[in-house]
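Self-study notes.
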Amino acid sequence: MSTTTPATLSLDGLFAREFEELAVPWQAEEAPAPELLVLNEALARELGLDPASLQTTEGTLMLIGNRIPEGATPVAQAYAGHQFGGYSPLLGDGRALLLGEVTDVHGRLRDVHLKGSGRTPFARAGDGLAVVGPMLREYIVSEAMHAMGIPTTRSLGVVATGRPVRRDTMLPGAVLTRVASSHLRVGSFQFARVNGDTDLLRRLADHAISRHHPDAGKADQPYIALLEAVVAAQASLVAQWMLVGFVHGVMNTDNMTISGETIDYGPCAFMDAFNPGAVYSSIDAGGRYAYANQPLIAEWNLTRLAEALLPLFHEDQEQAVALAVESLGAFRKLYSEAWSAGMKSKLGLGADAKDDAVAPLVNDVLALLEEGKVDYTSFFRSLGSAARGTPETARSMFADPGVFDAWAEKWLALAPDADMMDRVNPVYIPRNHLVEEALGAATAGDLDPFRRLVDVLAHPYTEHPGLERYADPAPVDFGSYRTFCGT
């Protein structure tokens, strides 16, 4: 690694400066032998940074907070939250630090944030550290989501620390450098409300409006408009998750952003065989965050946001509640519209296709997929070929191809657009067996499988000869899949 001094990484300390009540100044733990494993060069350039500079010794130290960039005030953020339905008045960044904000080449303010940088005052019983596998998982999945056009936090880099970390066994430690529109969460507002700090609540809301939802600031009731904007953003986001078969796995209120970006890729996975009850988290024993529950949980979380914001809606509690209920009532309609529009596209049907014709097709095909344990991603991608007159791949996924034929006759009668379908049905997703293969190799020191997988996932809708294994469903012997939160 070069030891050339990098160009200055200049960060603002806006959050640290404006929200002292939510920001504990803190320093990342010194890494004994830092080694840059992966750098997202395209994202670095988007942030106005020089990738070559970040690959120097000094640049790598900046990426993990061991050299503090000019203007940066590293802080651990405080927030509250409901975790698996249970309320905690104080959570916070137990192993993470907000380094500061940077204005990207498009003029957008972005957070630069560390994960796995060591214990903070919010760490409770945790060691504050992270290991190579889960940090590379977040890199893989967040960049795949970005490539599919789904709003997400992104991964700038992963640095191995040279420090062994004890989990079930000793594993190599790592720090993820994450980029987000912000790290404002539902839990941030819950913290202000539980502490009875209406001034902080108002300042947080004004900050969220200014940074994420400026149109709300022009409304007659800006705080109601803020809630409505977050409701709309989350309805759209969760519909997009559902359409690609993504299971977040830990939809706690501290993991729901005000911006509408996906955050915190811990026990997450993409469905293999279609299963509404799919759960991939080792700690979600009751299936609270199962695939089919995600829209309901999103609405539940948004209700907690509305509760936190009540003092800003109206000085009369009953009137404040009535305003909140009215705003929350839009979620189901917005989600349903986004889901229906997305499913029409997945089936190659235009926006003008009649809902009463499309809805039975969707319900029927999902029932067939569930009953036949058919791979969700492969099936929808294969429909493009079926629409072009070659249904063999789709038919072969069913033990009784006749059930597909009967459904397809009704679908084909609506003249689906195969090209439309290929634009929205991915060939390549972060398939669980390939992710585990890449992470296992990387943990053992071989990053080649990881790099190949990341390269393939950067172009999810374009099929390439020779990459068939990246599109194939999981092998039969892959078995039941479980992921862990990475702590």
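Second protein, same conventions, sequence then structure:
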Amino acid sequence: MQYLGSPLELAHGRAWRNRVALAPLTNLQSNADGTLSDDEYRWLVRRAEGGFGLVMTCAAHVSPEGQTFPGQLGICDDAHLDGLRRLATGIRSAGSVSAVQLQHGGRRADAELSGRPALAPWDDPQRGVTALTTDQIERVIADFADAAVRAERAGFDGVEIHGAHGYLVAQFLDVRHNHRTDRYGGSAENRFRIVHDIIAAIRAETSPDLQLGLRLSPERYGIVLDEACALAGEVLSDRHLDYLDLSLWDAFKRPYEEHHQDRLLIEHFVDLPRGSTRLGVAGKILDAPGARECLERGADFVLIGTGAILHHDFARNVAADDEFRAMDTPVPERHLVNESVGPRFVDYLDDRWDDFVIR
């Protein structure tokens, strides 16, 4: 049994000081051009100071046309490097391993923000979305690899491919809509291909010390559980990834699909052979007992979202106090400010959830 406070060794790069990672959280705090803002720097470095083993950025867009949110961090241009270097240095100085989450919005990208048409695996005229050509898919794969190179140049310890939540990579996995007739659509093998190609491209272009993770959603967005398990099994066993990050929405839930509800969702993945690849889970982990339960069920680490917003030192607290629990929401705006949550992030939390902020 590994404890929350025990170090986590990975196949590449530095060990994490514990089993508690900061989940990649949309926060809208970057500058309009994708460069790092002081607020985003403070938000992330404060979590490193609070003891998280891994501190990961929000989704950073790898292509100009992939931008999805206003105030989204960018990693698609060398103009982003100075801020990224500052951030990597700050996180490392505070004792955490650092990672950039690499993302492309696909059909969820915002053409008004990017000034470029949105592209996706299939045409969606009602949304003004055009299907990618095979050549354009290859360009996107190269963009992910270029962004990983940029992250490494900036001094980050690793990157995570965002293959979850209905963004571009997850769109290729969508069994309902991805009926492409080239090698990136139709069969499960073809729909999985972009994941393997991005992993291979990043490994080919970066050093052996760079940690590489992948985030997957095992349900929703046109993803069926049997296929999610199959893809997870492939990436866990091929030895290219350092970790798989499963965004479960609720780490203690049963699957949506009735014929799989004999077990918790997490239990469909923890017994998959994984060699040296680590398995992390995220979703409503708000206290030390819940985090320990995830490890007891077979996960190697947990990723924390809400708890990390409420407590910059959530990681230190759950490692030290077996009964620690995040405070209940809603919370006063002043509390969030004291926890280095910037004004745009506070506005986002207030707009997105009715019961998070008291103003």
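Instructor comment on the second fold: Residues 134-154 form the longest helix (21 residues).
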